[in-house]
Amino acid sequence: MNTHLATWISPHPQGIYVKPADAWIDPSLPKPVALVTHGHADHARAGHGKVLATPETLAIMRHRFGPQPGAQALAYGETITIGDVSVRFVPAGHVLGSAQIVLDYAGERVVVSGDYKRRPDSTCQPFEPVACDVFITEATFGLPVFRHPDAALEIAKVLAALALEPERTMLIGAYALGKSQRLIQLLRAAGYHKPIYLHGALVPLVALYEQLGVPMGDVRPAAGEKPDVFRGHIVMAPPSALNDRWSRRMLDPVTAIASGWMQVRQRAKQRNVELPLVISDHADWDELTQTITDIKPQEVWVTHGREEALIHWCALRQIKARALSLLGRNDDEEA
Amino acid sequence: MRAFAALLDRLLYTRSRNAKLALIAQYLLLTPDPDRGWALAALTSELDLPAVQPLIIRTMMAERVDPVLFDLSYDYVGDLAETCALLWPEPEIVKRTEQPLLSDVVVRLASLTRADAPKVMATLLDNLDASARWACLKLATGGLRIGVSARLAKTAVAQAFSLNLDDIEEVWHGLQPPYAELFDWAEKRADKPSLELLPAFRPFMLAQPLEAGDTLSPEDYLAEWKWDGIRVQVVRNAEHVRVFSRTGDDISASFPDVSAAMTIDGVVDGELLVRDTTGDPASFNKLQQRLGRKRVTAKDLAEYPAFVRLYDILLDGKEDVRALPLLERKQRLNTFAVGLPAERFDVSPVLDGDSFEAWERLRADARDLAQEGLMLKRKDSAYVGGRKAGLWYKWKRDPLLADCVLMYAQRGHGKRSSFYSDFTFGAWSTDGTLLPVGKAYFGFTDAELKWLDSWVRNHTVSTFGPVREVEKALVLEVAFDAVQSSARHKSGIAMRFPRIARIRNDKPANEADTVATLQGFIAKAAA
Fold first, then answer.
1. Residue B65: which of A144, A265, A269 has the nearest Cβ?
2. Active-site residue flag, B394
3. Which position has the higher pLDDT, A306 or B466?
4. What domain range includes position A41?
5. Where are the domains of chain B?
């Protein structure tokens, strides 16, 4: 009785296996053929035989892991056939190059969302809903308490705090790939054109975005500057560096983190944040549920996150849903 | 309301004490009466808004949000007010031209009946944004939990208006929110409020823990037991009697037996305890049956009769004796206590011995259920509020230890809402099964908590709502102050003040302690 559609796709702890293509989606272990949704470390790994991804994702992987001999670029909208499965990448709106994977086989269509969001993001192509039989979705923020505010309002908080205490350093924790570039663009869009100083982990990825056509304005490495220079300025670092030795040289910093997790006060407090910024590259609860409403799949499979609530929401609407429990999905840092 | 919500938000995220003081002081200086007074009442936990019970709020949410989604959200967020503030459906048409003032909100909530509460709360919440909703719900349900103690808030008053903190503490219990008299005095429009006819609270003198490196000359100090009850101050002035807890809360209503027995004007300091059937001080467990009861029954009074074991005297009649040396105050206290009913008041004895060795022996033997350790007090010390270095020391007995096996874990609340931080552990019974013997929430470092949290996640065998049952494989060294027999627990025992001392990765679970071993601690204590 508990049969599902798309029996040609099987979830495993280390990834999603597409049997007729003999290919894995975002596998966490090396596989002969891998389809990669986007460049974050918990989705893109080194060591696969063949890698299929968007040109931007491949550029990010090259930056992270060096040359990818088995790489094959597939631009948004192009279709390729592997085995008897037709494969197409569609923008997911998560980070630069991020894709949903549309799989057609034996009259069934499966869409793997990867990580996605539907809020405006000038650093990447917007999410496109694709009607399908099975929608394999993320659920990082799969609880109704997660409702991301307009990112421009959060940016206004940063600028107000800078104006209020110009002698302090505005130290913002933001994930190195995607979040920090988006923040820079949001700041520029809000009329902030002063130099933005970057932790070493951010420098190459910011440069890569510029190469791929996303302008960043005046950005400078923080390394080598005297701490006084940062007063009244924005310094960006990966969240993990905020409570580490690196940040100790910042003079009287206002510590901010940009993440969807900042919605929950105690969670922000846990991270010793003084200025929580609710800016996320993932879909919030309304986006997750709206997307399912939009594309009307017969079944929803949930890869990772707070899946119970989303599955319950589906059940209330007579949509068949299941949890896949993939391993190694780290939703903490980059959300 | 917006300014108050912003204050709470900023206080929550501010770590430094000085920065918190500055924020509160700035708010008090910039906010007009009566709003600032109500805010101060909220910060000092003096607001009593009984109509809005958490149950009412949960019922209101149940009418608006699917119950399963609510429970999952609450379990994740860990705070009822915040969960509801985030889940509250935004009204379709937002007409928040003017947000209500804090004083409007407080006055409305204070005059509310339970029957009206849901409707009035709903209207309020509709008119507030998410952050103000959180503040409003925090106010209504009590307990702000923003890392601000009543004392810190009063310190901010002192700082804002250049007053003396001890002066504020003294007048505090004669004042009512929204504290017009206080601000009139603070802004020099009126004199200091009079205490003449009020049973006012005086700041407690506190002890610092005795550390290994402390060098005291034993001849300068006297030793007395540190009793394991709650520290109280009993005040009588012009027929009015109050029993104050260490935090300055008025707990007179819970202890009418003690209040009625304070028959002489004065202020004394002592330990509130209850007697067991033999007339000796009973364990803290028994005292807990009386704590926090707003209505005390005749049965409670008979079963757990309360009394105060006196340490010190602050006012002898109308005479303030706080500046006298301790030895002289002890004499005054002895004389004072003679006039009080002996079954309700006795004097804590000064212990024999004048060397650390003698005291060490007493302390090591202190396994009487009601003794927590020793106090060492300078013989010439005046009674000064707060914790002053070098005057009084507390010297707790060493904890007892047992190796127990982790059985269940639950996510914490508040700051730990995403961590499994409440641990239930067990000891082996004679038939080879594990029986829960206690629950601990602290004792571990942040790094250990992280480790425990991930261990729990990776070794879960089943989940019941927010509780995870784990593989019976991890040994925890648990420190505790005493073991009491308990009919409520299957193991027959209850630990006093258990905390995680160490994670014993090195020890296999089958070598953990047995329930019988733990029962042995009860026997020792009673002997």
1. A144
2. no
3. A306
4. 9-145+282-323
5. 205-396, 400-526
